[in-house]
């Protein structure tokens, strides 16, 4: 295992500040990096069966070097694991290992494990130390920054949880080589999102360098670090999601509706793919509302297509519900505040903003135009624009 | 219903500051007081079957005056309700009512309901608004101040939860008239605790005025307000229990051991009774260690006896496990940090302090002396004292 010097991204949250280390060979250094920051503590590792089979021995070796012999709790892989039943299982396991408040819960897996283990760490003894070792690209760029933890409810995804910041994140870029390519690509959609929100130069860099990010050169760590910095900036401005943090939902309102429309099956559409199509639609919708140039929408679509991501509804295999039904999924989304439709729209690449009170009729017409089964043309362009909230200068 | 001007206690926690209103007739003003602070919000009331039968109509009338028609979730009464299963039930109920982050969860009941509903409010959508309407004396003086919420685990009480501060607490003193006298007395033990921790004048006032507190005159609101102020002072100094807040555990280490020894049955010993005996033992133990005068221990014992509370182990009906077994309950207590025995001891009435590294042998000898089944006399007084941590001057 190589052990190049990792890139460090500092997440500045005052007395909850922490480091993200990004680089190859970090599993073998896990004990050293953890002990340096949290000396003399004991740990429980929460993981899933797939990650355990591929990487648990390497992590245990890395922890063993600093005399950390963790309790290990292994869960079934998959989104269904984010449930009350598994939360209780993890909580009981951590308590059974007699860990105290100053000891550590280590999340070792993708977003599901990170969200579930982080939630457990946030509630056992009203908050234990928490370390993230994300093993998917999505988790490295997204779930591991920001402190959101949680589980799903029968009423919707991520409706139950807490804000609980980790003390350290170790993103081992080598581990990503064992990911199925479809999963890597899905994570890449969230990575590219940060260019589209407010870093146009990063998006241009990705258009040039995406193949090296996929191949695993130093560009991979560079790209992950830039995405983490971008997210950390937004989170530091708005830790508890009362304002700007909503920008991170770029692509997610359309994306969640498409995920819901395909029953979150994960066969037809995984989360990052939904976000990819959602981002393309958000740009096209912004162009349709005369907010942004159609050239920018075309550029986003071209890049997603180039890396092999779906970018339009027609790319989803099988039939979709009609536009009315898709709109009803959007209206049920938790980002709907008091009945008004809130969208993240854009004025161009890297110029996303929060648009409140977007008229449902506009969304419906746009969905009809974009729907592979309902290709009606519309008589003319709408003049009314939604009220806008400028994203703050940085 | 009378509606005298309530006493207001401000809990100063920066941007999490809130008011406690204490007085009679507050249920009928609930809508007014809530709407003044959280206008235009919807609510869910979490309560138990006993409280609902006695007081739910009065609360609903009070809310109705401000057009609040709450969803109501009624749970079985009793400590067993603080479980994962009931937590999930409350979370689902709040989500089913389609409440959003800015809406309110109202805890309407004793400590069990407050802890459970507060935990649910802390995790639904990662934190909703929370209002406490405590209906027991214990909850009014203790559970409603400090932001601790949680449930029990098979591994112990209150091991799972979050810190989540309410936006408002309404302590209606009239509601307490429907409490069984034993429960009122048990709550009184926690109230008197604040005099013993650091308010000697309050303890002296209680020695004079306790009968009027029981009878329900203005002294009742006065006493509850003083206890809330005392707790709020400690919590404001140490919101997340890293130091001084441990003073609130006066009487609780011995008390929890006795509760555990009686299987938390609630028939032989309720929590406040355990605390009463625990406080008397903490004073007697401090005197035995030559830290405090035996006269102070005698004064505490006399007051507890006067109000009808148990004050020694012999007051618990039935047999107790032996001193060794009681010590093992103490050593399992979550307040044991890394194997060292931590106790709240005292230098006299109103002079409690945190004592770390109390030798287990001292505790064992004292338990043997105090145990009704093991009345051995000891050969002489021990000279060694535990290390001390001074409580901060105020």
Quick tags:
nucleotide-binding (chains A, B), disordered C terminus, Dehydroquinate synthase-like, alpha domain, alpha/beta, nucleotide binding (chains A, B), DHQS_C (chains A, B), homodimer, 12 strands, NAD (chains A, B), zinc (chains A, B), Rossmann fold
Structure description:
Two copies of one chain form a homodimer. Chain A is about 45% helix and about 15% strand. Chain A has about 400 residues and is α/β, with parallel strands linked by helices. Chain A folds into two domains: about 5-180, Rossmann fold; about 180-394, Dehydroquinate synthase-like, alpha domain (Up-down Bundle). In chain A, the strands form three sheets. The first copy, chain A, has a seven-stranded mixed sheet with strand order 1-2-9-6-5-3-4, sandwiched between helices. In chain A, a hairpin with a 6-residue loop joins strand 1 (about 5-10) and strand 2. The first copy, chain A, is globular, with a radius of gyration of 21 Å. Chain A starts with 6 loop residues before the first strand and ends in a 5-residue tail after the last strand. In chain A, about 55% of the residues are buried. Chains A, B: Belongs to the sugar phosphate cyclases superfamily. Dehydroquinate synthase family. Chains A, B: It catalyses: 7-phospho-2-dehydro-3-deoxy-D-arabino-heptonate = 3-dehydroquinate + phosphate.
